[in-house]
Structure prediction request, 357 residues.
Amino acid sequence: MHKNRVRVLLLAVAAACIVVATNQREGSAEDYFIQGNANLGLGLYDEAIAEYDKALQLQPDVSAGYIGRGAAHLMSRRYQEAIADFDQALLLEPYLVNAYYYRGAAKSGLKLFEEAIADFDVALRLQHDHVDAFVERGNAKTCLGLQQEAFADFERALHYDPDNARAYHGRGVTYLNLGRSEDALGDLDRALQLKPDFAEAFVSRGYAKAALGLYEEAIVEYNLALGLQPGHVSAIFSRGLAREKLGQFQTAIADYDQVLQSKPDHAHTYFHRGLARANLGRFQDAIIDYDRALQLKHDYAKAFISRGLAKNNLGLAEGAFADLKAAAALNSAKTAMDSDGGIDSEGLVRQLWFGQY
Prediction:
């Protein structure tokens, strides 16, 4: 969620709370609501929740209090608690646009994208020009692979707000997913003109440049993102991929090491660290990484292929044969081989087997 949207929400919450609590005495629900709003605006989410708790104990029928507390939970990534608060607000007032919108955002946070889209649909029926709902619905559709539908949502958002950086970013990502990297760059450039501190847009622009084979330029984009968000995992991982493509295997490994510190169960990072190690001739270390990738993702055809090749380099022909045969048996093997330059794993199996035996 973004702070500017929380500020808009705060205005609505504050207005509702003040109207409801106009006749309250000092030290009553009104004071707690006001302090909760102030803490929410300052990004003090735990403190805001504590104030809303006090207010709602005294006055449990104020929908704005549940929305404010839900927003604080949402910003803290406590998505289940946020949903419970928005549910309660809608029990009190069934036509609250922001309750549907923010509940949809919380469901997106839980990767419940279809349920999120249903909430955004209701928000848009209640307010047809709700730009943020179009953007978030587009993002959810992107995550479901519904690229054309997502594209339409970003277009609608830009119709109502032609200077919406998040809509340009969303449309740019959709272009990227459709294989239109040049178009993606145009939208991502525009997003960053409108919002120069938009870390995600730098990362996405890095993706677009990498897709065009501009790996050094992609690394610059990832570094810019990391200047804004030093621990941005996607930027670090993607920088590792770009360095790997450039043959900078030691620095790629350093990036993968950093990713695994925060995401120790990320199969793709183990796989790519294995590739980098194999390219440095460290086949035993590579096999350890491929082993871990396959523990986490049992149908990882690329990892079977790469582990087989590493074993073959160590003279372990029987193990290599078993891995390559396992890769060939997987339904995903053909896709994996096509994306790795047309490796014929069945042919490799035959070559290794007949060459050794």
